[in-house]
Amino acid sequence: MLFFERTHPMYILCLLLMHHLWELVQFWNRKVDQLFVSRKLTVTEQGYSQTQREALAVFWAVKRLHRYLFGKKVTIVTDHEALKFIYHPEKSLARSSAAMVQRWSIALSAYDYTVQHRSAKQIQRVDYISRQSLQDKPINTSDCLLVQPLPVTRSDLIRETRRYLGCILSAIRKGWNANLKRRFPIYFLKRDELSTTPDGILCLNDRVVITPSLRKSVFEDLHSGHLGVEKMKSLVRLTCWWPEINADICRTANNCEKCHQLKNHPSKWGPWSVSSEAWQRIHADCCGPFLGKYYALVVNDSFSKWPEVFFTTSPNYDFTKQALRKVFSREGVSMVLVTDNGSNFAADAVTTWLNGIGCKHLFTAPRHPCSNGQAENFVGTLKTLLIL
């Protein structure tokens, strides 16, 4: 097989072999295989007619190999001659055709392809595989229950399950009586999900039920990496179960000193300090456009909540500087100005001017608008008033 090369002409062999879709991409001028993909038909797809299954093989192959085929001239080779007319690139499909085949034909119209028929005898390797296909054997589910490793052996599970939960094994086979309902209420509520293996292991769906005597060893293995509550729960969902297992996981993690040391401790955000006088700290923000061209600069005092709004069609740094100058000329220069990182606020001309007049300019964290919540809240109020 070779690596993919877009310069060589490509051929796709699309065939239906028993209950499998079989696709082979080739460099035909060099007769070298490049890529092989296949999948098994679902139970529903196995009920399709022969032509529909052959059409599905072509559709699935093209969509599966989209990254290699899109925008490139491709020849689709099939041993089903009817597909030459179903997927004809220049002719529409008859309205009497099945709806799903029509959808497939429309979807393939996005690709540059031609369909070529070739008898199965001319594709010798495919002809052999179609005749020698192996029959699928039913899977013995009891052999697939313990795929995920557990810190206990199968013999331990069988022995302890018979010792502690033998009556539940009997109830699954013979039925639940009133005494068992009172003794094991949680197991009774999940009785429709419980099952047993031939050798006597109790399972909840595909998870092994762990008895009280084995839970300590399972917990020690589960908690050995100190991965945290959520990670432990995700691992447990794949392997084992017992009543109140989530509560046991939370209790263990909360009482573990190493878990607390390894736990992420996000920084706590505190509120802005309360201003002692009017116009000591102001919050500003820019919003718009309104009516397609107007923008608004909002200035809000943190003490009195008094707002100032300035409208413009060009919200640049020069307009921002002039608007703040008007506010400071009426109310006095504020000690602190809080804004976001907009270009009209972060411009050198604005920051230099603010430093020159003794106003400290604070920027909020990027993508964290609640840091400038007072201005943001008034922006919402302003938009509501303008709509009304």
Automatic annotation (TrEMBL):
Pfam family, one: RT_RNaseH
Record keyword Cytoplasm present: no
UniProt key word tRNA-binding: no
Signal peptide annotation: 1-27
One GO MF term attached to the UniProt entry: hydrolase activity
InterPro entries: DNA/RNA_pol_sf, Integrase_cat-core, Integrase_H2C2, Retrovirus_Pol_polyprotein, RNaseH-like_sf, RNaseH_sf, RT_RNaseH
Domain named Integrase catalytic: residues: 267-388
Gene3D superfamilies, sorted: 1.10.340.70, Ribonuclease H-like superfamily/Ribonuclease H
Gene Ontology biological process: DNA integration
Keywords (A to Z) from UniProt: Endonuclease, Hydrolase, Nuclease, Nucleotidyltransferase, RNA-directed DNA polymerase, Signal, Transferase
Name listed for the protein in its UniProt record: Integrase catalytic domain-containing protein
Lineage, top ranks: Eukaryota, Metazoa, Spiralia, Lophotrochozoa, Platyhelminthes
